[in-house]
Give the backbone structure.
Amino acid sequence: MSTLVCFHAHPDDECIATGGTLAAAHANGHRTVLVVATRGERGEVAPGVLSDGEALWERRISETFRAAEVLGVDRVEFLGYVDSGMMGEPTNDTPYTFWTADIDAAARRLATILDEERPEVLTIYDDHGGYGHPDHIQVHRVGLRAAGLAGVSHVLQATMNRDHIRSLLEERAAAAAAEVANESGVPEPEVPEPPDEATEAEFGSPEALITHRIDVGEWIAAKRSAMAAHASQIPPDSWFLQLGDEEFAAAFGAEWFIRTGSVRPDGEPFVTTIWP
């Protein structure tokens, strides 16, 4: 049995980025550990979710444990930092936020867990946190430092495949345009050009930098259920859960990673397992 530790910034991040990987590891008999840096206090709560007097952070902790149960996570730990909010907001620099945390001090907290678990694999985020969120960037920095302190050599950086997302958006736009044309008899319009590279620079990573593609299609139902457990952030009417089964599988049926210190040669296939 091997051990996987996934380090995330906020509750619900674990489902979106690595939910299928966690579920697959558990199903195959491995130990799985989730470490969350903050309690997600700055999240935008869906209306009507919280009970009278209930704090968002309390709900998000309970949601994390429910989602972890769905995914088969064996251990859940919170590092105890405060959610920093989106990049550029005044909350970034308030006391005890993860963004203001000392890198070495935070890394020692995580390294304590890594020393206890001795994982074969640690997942963090890419160097810009997937989309530029300060807490995600800090997960990258703290995670790398902790891996060095604890001697974890196999570190995978969870990311989004920017090229895959562009392709899905283009396909969806083309299908929508064709549907309009069929219904109205108007000739099918040209599909709009995708956003230029400058607008995507902080969203995911180009495919050329990605080393691992993990097929989690077998565990897509568990991933979707775990996301639904985070109802304060992903309510039933959210776009995530409004996707049809095929669309959801296309969007979330693969999880993407960059192995730290590794390059995938041009034309070589993706690695398809997280294990060394």
The first strand starts at residue 3 and ends at 8.
